[in-house]
Design brief:
This protein has 281 residues and is an all-alpha fold. It has one domain. It has 12 helices and no strands. The longest helix has 31 residues. The C terminus is likely disordered.
């Protein structure tokens, strides 16, 4: 029962810690300006509340909430500290295939994200945070590491080590990773990336490569928002590429081929349960 309950508990803790951190920073803003909520109610301008909080405070909320979550799942013994950052477990020749394949697939997902064009409810918040040092660090580096600890090592790793079928564990953790983002523009694509990272985690047994890829992905987004400023909201990769956007199909095919080859050549860690070694046709 623990192999299902603990991962669910980890997701609840992650959500709860982020919520508590968010409430705390807004509470501080209200304490500093007791009339703040009254002003927002009178004007109907929600941006006043966000401006009062500030991007640095939001960034610290993300960081502290994430650290608290990692600490709690560590207490639940959902993290294998002996393997979580063990570079020696990785066959880097095969790992290079995973890195390149993942980058190509994520590039195609970025194109699809623009084409589908779901509402981006957090775009202004991310742009503001990218313009401060601590905000950029929280989105580009600390946030990705925390999420890999929680979703790959904590949720996925714990299920795999508990004997849950590998595909059930990978897909379930990826769906949770997508849904936890809440923002419609991120949910389906975060879930797809979660599957890619989950496959890599399963084969390598740790979060080294997923962390590197996650940091790279988020850092590129931070750099884009920082360098373009408000213009980042109107930036379109599809428009910039023009007719070249059609190369997304062969690029995606190459990326998936590289990931399949990585799957075939990288040896799975021996400590996973025997049922996770079964090949599903």
């Amino acid at each position: 029962m623990k192999k299902i309950l603990y991962p669910i508990l980890a997701l609840i803790v992650f959500t709860l810690m982020q919520t508590i951190a968010g409430v705390a920073i807004y509470a501080v803003a209200v304490i500093k300006d007791p009339d703040l909520l009254k002003k927002v109610a009178q004007t109907g301008d929600q941006s006043m509340l966000e401006s009062a909080v500030g991007s640095n405070a939001l960034a610290w909320g993300v960081i502290l909430g994430g650290i608290a979550t990692v600490a709690i799942i560590a207490l639940l013994k959902m993290i294998d500290w002996n393997t979580v950052f063990d570079f020696k477990m990785i066959n880097w020749k095969a790992g290079a295939l995973a890195i390149l394949g993942a980058i190509l697939c994520i590039f195609v997902l970025d194109i699809l994200e623009e084409i589908i064009d779901l509402p981006n409810l957090l775009e202004d918040q991310f742009t503001d945070m990218s313009n401060s040092f601590i905000g950029a660090i929280s989105i580009g580096i600390i946030g990705p590491i925390i999420e890999e600890f929680v979703f790959r090592e904590g949720v996925l790793g714990y299920m795999l080590r508990s004997g849950v079928n590998k595909w059930v564990a990978i897909i379930a953790s990826a769906l949770a990773f997508g849904l936890i983002h809440i923002n419609p523009a991120q949910v389906p694509f975060a879930a797809a990336i979660g599957i890619i990272f989950g496959i890599i985690y399963y084969k390598t047994g740790n979060i080294v490569i997923p962390c590197l890829l996650h940091i790279l992905n988020n850092s590129v987004a931070v750099w884009q928002m920082y360098s373009l400023g408000d213009a980042a909201k109107d930036f379109s990769l599809v428009e910039e590429m023009g007719s070249w956007s059609y190369i997304g199909i062969p690029i995606g095919t190459i990326g998936m081929t590289l990931l399949i080859q990585f799957w075939r050549t990288h040896q799975t860690p021996s400590y996973y349960q025997e049922q996770n070694e079964q090949v599903i046709a």
